[in-house]
Amino acid sequence: MKLFVxxxxxxxxxxxxxxxxxxxxxxxxxxxxxxxxxGDLGDRVQDACKxxxxxxxxxEILCTSQNGYDTTLQNTIxxxxxxxxxxxxxxxxxxxxxxxxxxxxxxxxxxxxDNGYKIDWNNYFGGIANYYATAAGELQSFPFNSSTAxxxxxxxxFEKAGIDFKPDTWEHVEEAARxxxxxxxxxxxxxxxxxxxxxxxxxxxxxxxLATKANGYxxxxxxxxxxxxxxxxxxxxFKKMQDEKLFVxxxxxxxxxxxxxxxxxxxxxxxxxxxDHGTVGKTLPEGVKWDVAMLPVWKGTERKxxxxxxxSLWVMAGRPAAEYKGAAAFLNFLAxxxxxxxxxxxxxxxxxTKTGFDAMKANGFYDKAPYKxxxxxxxxxxxxxxxxxxxxxxxxxxxxxxxxxxxSLEAIFMQNADVQKELDQAAERSNAxxxxxxxxxxxxxxN
Amino acid sequence: MxxxxxxxxxxxxxxxxxxxxxxxxxxxxxxxxxxxxWAFTLEPPFGGPAEFVGFANFQEAFADPFxxxxxxxxxxxxxxxxxxxxxIGLVLAxxxxxxxxxxxxxxxxxILPYAIAGPAAGMAFRFILSPERGLAASxxxxxxxxxxxxxxxxxxxxxxxxxxxxKWSGYTFIFLLAGLQSVPxxxxxxxxxxxxxxxxRAIDVxxxxxxxxxxxxxxxxxxEGFVGADTFGIVHAVTEGGPNHGTEVMVYRIVDEAFKxxxxxxxxxxxxxxxxxxxxxxxxxxxxxxxxxxxx
Lengths: 447, 296
Known about the structure:
Chain A: It is found in: Periplasm. Chain A contains 19 helices and eleven strands.
């Protein structure tokens, strides 16, 4: 028994040492890539890694899921502080500013130039690239899995209720909701307290600022202003609709979130990410007609482009030069049109480059049933060139600010709190968060 | 007189204790030192110049009304949860200790919930007790909003505490059953001969003799309720601190602040306050409750 234990321990030790020295005599340069996607989407990332490893013999990418966007950021920070950071890491939209200020990364342009790749940076859709670029337009990370919010509606239910118009304005949505209700549908529109469609996308397409200093792009001394914009009226409208039982709250705490509520045909309209397009198509029973549209606007509003969501790939500083060659090769590989199309097909995320999108359009990808409608996400993202209010949101500790807003929405819609008072409080607390963030990065400037 | 074995040399005992000391140093004192350091500075998450800010992080926490809300929520959680978990464990242990037919099976059954991870139990209960789809849905159909943890903070707090009790009753049960089995049978039998029923025997004989075990459970369970992994896990899986801060226990706030908000400094300051609170709590327990516990 003792001998056995000793043997195992020794074997373990041996394994550890051989693993440690392996890169020394292996021909391939190995480098790490951490990502936050999990489940089915995580498997697709693994497929992408495998495709890359099979496509060439100089590099080997080791891909590890950290099971969640926030844990990936967290683990990247911990690893960076311990000088064990991966070469590439996937950081979600809300973590962009933390990375930008970290000085712990290699800017996208510099990496590709250093390793001899000529990239046409204008090939990225402006609505996507600007979220990850400096105010001057310098792209810092590589847009990867990108999405935007869409409006999903059940066409079969619409037909049953005799609705012959599209839900393109909120006036139409209200009218549709009334007709659906009259036709016996209990939940015409389902919504939850996710701020991404309700606050962020709404503000962008209605050209409303979320914060001063161009939504934070022009300085850390930004302040949120969402309690003084059209967003307040929009929340009041939602509240009125809720009181009339036309819009219904659906959260997992109540038993069912909005996407299951839509796919189980409990609710007939929802706003959610285009990334759910695949799930909705697979889950709704055969024969049920449904469609997506761009998020509705208020009548008379000049529609602007919507914001990109999802995550981008950051190349971390402090790795050996050989690994950067591999990282650049991998990122270049991902940008090839056939890879773009493959990724978009298997996940539902949208292509991030114009050539990728054009190639897919030319292939007739968007004409067929399961993928039809996804092109509207691109249309929504590129509706207008980006402007101050629509290029993105660059606020420190943005995850916490989102939480403040969604908590106030919870108070408004679940506990009947006063709309203006709650939003004022959320804004005040968000500003306190922003001031602390500014103090943490004292003396740093956004370039 | 006990016979004691004493080490002759001074270094040998230290060598024996060294592995343990190293472990404690690495996994306790070092992190604590790091937390104290964070608590008094502001440092960017990726590293960089750490600015000393004195008590600013503490002041920020204390100035926040929702922080005090989380203290109250935590206190309720850490008092109500453990008291019920211990009481239920006690009743179950006394019942099983009577060794009626089927005791073995029930002993196994009662321990089982403890084997389930808190977040998993939370997930299950979120569905079972959800207001629109679960068991409560039919109740809500009759009396609207009689049970709605998504709407009322009190209901939500009750929900997470129920899950905590459900899981930890199994744990207190093991300890109390073991304690009961060391109570001399003769005492119970003598009381029975004098005409004491099972209820009277439990109150006058078994519970007093269980006092050390009960005290141990009180201290450990309250600490568990305050800072246990399950307290965070359950709240995280079930309510995410909502509705409107209704179930925001201190640990949830700390984890949220640190890992979602990347505000390590604020989270560290709150951790230190929490450690202090637990020390006060434990002190009170030893000072006032232990006096009434007789070990021999």
